[in-house]
Design brief:
- This protein is α+β, with helices and mostly antiparallel strands.
- The protein has helices spanning 15-38, 72-108, 116-127, 143-150, 182-185, 191-198, 274-284, 295-312, 321-325, 329-342; strands spanning 9-10, 42-48, 51-57, 65-69, 113-114, 135-138, 152-153, 163-168, 203-205, 208-213, 219-224, 255-261, 266-271.
- It has three domains: 1-111; 114-243, no CATH class; 273-348, no CATH class.
- A hairpin with a 2-residue loop joins strand 2 (42-48) and strand 3.
- Helix 1 (15-38) runs antiparallel to helix 2 (72-108), helix 3 (116-127) packs across helix 6 and helix 7 crosses helix 10 (329-342).
- The model has no long low-confidence stretch (mean pLDDT 92).
């Protein structure tokens, strides 16, 4: 099937400013929450033998470490900590209020939304420094971001799923932290640690070591291209190393988008280049090992995303000769089949 431009429902003309305002409010919240995440859990004075000592707890399970007796220096450390934490808390609280206000405007325009549990997960990953640096959102959950990029509701492609797919991108060209050093990832939480900070019942599925599941049966899967394997030892997930199709999602220009959740929170999404996601989906629809029930949906998603790029993203994600010549043979044939059916001729 070829989708016409009239098959897409374009967003209202004023939606661009509403989306930008929500992203700005989220950025304020994200900065404040990252500041809080890097600060010690608490800092207090502890009396021993009649002398007050500065004690620091890095987290809730920490017994506390003494930093020295009370002095002008330790008092200055304590005062700076209190001031920085109070300021970050206030900014985060103010951003929460702002996000709710702007998300109400966003929802009134009937723009794409994510489930609240997905938003909670993605916010936590972003605060922990994993989203954008180590992880991409892939699969059907990425389509809310693509609709937002295009400024249009898709006729197909955004059907809800009962799982959540992430792809490992650390060190690839789409990671925002391309130059990875030991110092840059020191102290960064693992994916499982973030999941368990949200829901302590998350456990790795022993039959599928690339999948975590909570007590409610919600699944989070981690995929990885062969070039990204093996994962760091800090990650307990073991993605299949044979999925060559994951390499294609690490090409082009990944996109960052903020959408609203159902209950007026912000949800960050970092997704693969829509062109590469489209041909990736078309290829999956032909993959012999693919679940036969998923193939029709893969085909619909691939076609609708190529048409969306054609109609709405020609400037930022052009389907031009340069893009086509970078496609591997197996994807170029699929693209050419679509282009022939759509009567689309890539130009230079």
């Amino acid at each position: 099937m070829v989708y016409k431009k009239s098959d897409f429902i374009q967003f209202p003309s004023d939606c661009g400013q509403v989306i930008a305002n929500l992203e700005a409010a989220y950025d304020q919240w994200h900065q404040a929450r990252q500041t809080l995440a890097t600060l010690p859990c608490s800092m207090f004075w502890q009396s021993k033998g009649g002398t007050a000592y500065l004690a620091v707890k890095q987290n809730g399970n920490d017994n506390g470490t003494t930093k020295g007796a009370r002095s002008p220096q330790t008092q200055a450390i304590f005062d700076a900590f209190v001031a920085e934490k109070d300021l970050a808390k206030r900014r985060a609280s103010e951003a929460d209020v702002l996000i709710e206000q702007r998300a109400l405007q966003y929802r009134a325009l009937r723009l794409p939304v994510m489930l609240d549990k997905q938003g909670e997960l993605l916010r936590a990953l972003d605060v922990a420094g994993l989203l954008r640096n180590d992880l991409l959102v892939v699969g059907s959950n990425a389509f809310s971001a693509y609709e937002t990029l295009c400024g249009a509701k898709f006729p197909a492609g955004n059907e809800p799923t009962q799982d959540f797919d992430l792809a490992w991108c650390r060190g690839s060209s789409v990671s925002l932290a391309r130059l990875v050093s030991d110092a840059s990832v020191a102290g960064r939480k693992s994916l499982m640690a973030v999941l368990q900070s949200i829901d302590s019942t998350y456990r790795l599925n022993p039959k599928k070591p690339y999948q975590a599941m909570n007590s409610a049966g919600y699944e989070v899967e981690l995929l990885a291209a062969p070039s990204r394997s093996p994962l760091p030892k800090t990650e307990v997930f073991e993605p299949m190393a044979s999925l060559v199709e994951q390499e294609w999602l690490l090409r082009g220009k990944a996109a960052f988008v903020v959408v609203s959740t159902q209950r007026h929170r912000a949800c960050p999404l970092y997704v693969p280049d829509p062109r590469w996601m489209a041909v990736h989906k078309l290829w999956l629809s032909k993959k012999p090992e693919r679940n036969a029930q998923k193939r029709p949906k893969d085909a619909r998603q691939g076609k609708v995303l190529l048409d969306a790029c054609r109609y709405f993203l020609a400037d930022t994600y052009p389907l031009d000769i340069d893009f086509v010549t970078h496609l591997p043979d197996e994807l170029r044939d699929l693209f050419n089949d679509w282009a022939k059916a759509a009567e689309y001729l890539p130009n230079s």
